[in-house]
Amino acid sequence: MAIASLAEIRSTRRLIVKIGSALLVERGQPRRTWLATLAEELAQLRAGGTEIIVVSSGAIALGAAKLGLEKGGRASLADAQAAASVGQVELARLWADALGAQGLLAAQMLVTLGDLEDRRRYLNAAATLGRLVETGAIPVVNENDSVATEEIRFGDNDRLAARVAQAAGAEAVLLLSDVNGLYDRNPKEPDAALIPRVEGVTPEIIAMASADSGSGLGSGGMLAKLQAARIAERAGIALAIVNGTHDKPISRALDAGIGTLFVAQGDESARKAWLSGRLAPAGVLTVDAGCTLALERGASLLAAGLTEVEGDFRRGDLVAIHGAKGERLGQGLVEYDAAECRAILGLREDEQAARLGYVPRAAVVHRDHMVRA
Ligand SMILES: Nc1ncnc2c1ncn2[C@@H]1O[C@H](COP(=O)(O)OP(=O)(O)O)[C@@H](O)[C@H]1O
Ligand SMILES: N[C@@H](CCC(=O)OP(=O)(O)O)C(=O)O
């Protein structure tokens, strides 16, 4: 479903909700009462059938206060990493308590840029997120700040949220911030006007983001949100920036329709196109007629339908999928190395475990990581 209004975000199947540092932390202290109202809203969304993944900042701000570090722990990378180590413990506890009060189970997931941008590791993160959500738990994702160095950091959780959305196959991202949305200039300027809807993040839109990052607690400012919007729109995912400062911020913003909606610029196939990029497939998997039919119906490629494996690829590589007559059926990210694929060719799941010596993965190419021709 293409999301055309803020209100429609309520009816998404899977939604990423990102909370910035300034919302969660005030003068070094967590905003527990506010968080309780947000958790209540997340529980309501969940009860209405929307699967929720939280991306939460706040570790550095919380940890810096505990350690008494200057500049909110952002004076140096070493400070930020130490602050994040201390603060993440508290952040996880906060979420476990807030969601627990609503009868929900919080699951902590700390990731780095590489986990979401390197194809091989991306599959692991995607599988864990998917499984967590299926179990009914609410993943609470943050960057693993204490180990990520400058070159391998997102640094801001806005882009992290957009990448998590891709990995989790979410339809929308809701960025809760301390402003109503994107303004045509720095919102502190008197004539600044809120932009309700953006169809494509153009250079003109990027130019609206002022270098002033408002709260001073976070890291990304508006520019990071626009970069996140660009990742999302190209992946066929809607993204909205709304004001999260009030109690029950989601209902307030979505009901009143106040915020900025970045409309997805592609469809589902655009999301999957990201998976394939412009890479040349590293191998070919040929499947039998039954499997061809199953793939046409949108199923995953299972080892039982595999008849031939060509090439020397590794888990996470892009492979082409061919039918029995050599016709191209599609392509996708393969869950096994080539040697393992050959070992389990044609085998059912129970036979695979015996051959591999470990519990097999759900598919050779999962439907979420496959683009049909
Ligand atoms: N064109 C703009 N529209 C809205 N906000 C802007 C704009 N340019 C700069 N900003 C600043 O960006 C801030 C939001 O970024 P940030 O403080 O990083 O948020 P968060 O902590 O929620 O991630 C706003 O408070 C605002 O001061
Ligand atoms: N991972 C960091 C957050 C970094 C960040 O981008 O913060 P923000 O701009 O407030 O979303 C932390 O937990 O402190």
TrEMBL record:
Q: Which GO terms describe its cellular component?
A: cytosol
What InterPro entries does this protein map onto? AceGlu_kinase-like_sf (IPR036393), Asp/Glu/Uridylate_kinase (IPR001048), G5K_ProB (IPR041739), Glu/AcGlu_kinase (IPR001057), Glu_5kinase (IPR011529), Glu_5kinase/COase_Synthase (IPR005715), Glutamate_5-kinase_CS (IPR019797), PUA (IPR002478)
Reaction catalysed by this enzyme: L-glutamate + ATP = L-glutamyl 5-phosphate + ADP
Give all residue intervals belonging to the PUA domain.
283-365
The name of this protein is Glutamate 5-kinase
The protein's location, in the record's own words, is: Cytoplasm
Tell me where on the tree of life, at the top rank, the source sits: Bacteria
Instruction: State a single Gene Ontology molecular function.
Output: glutamate 5-kinase activity
Q: Where does this chain mainly localize?
A: cytoplasm
Which sequence ranges are marked TM in the entry? none
Q: Name one GO biological process term.
A: L-proline biosynthetic process
Which pathway does UniProt place it in?
Amino-acid biosynthesis; L-proline biosynthesis; L-glutamate 5-semialdehyde from L-glutamate: step 1/2
The UniProt similarity line reads: Belongs to the glutamate 5-kinase family.
Give the keywords, sorted.
Amino-acid biosynthesis, ATP-binding, Cytoplasm, Kinase, Nucleotide-binding, Proline biosynthesis, Transferase
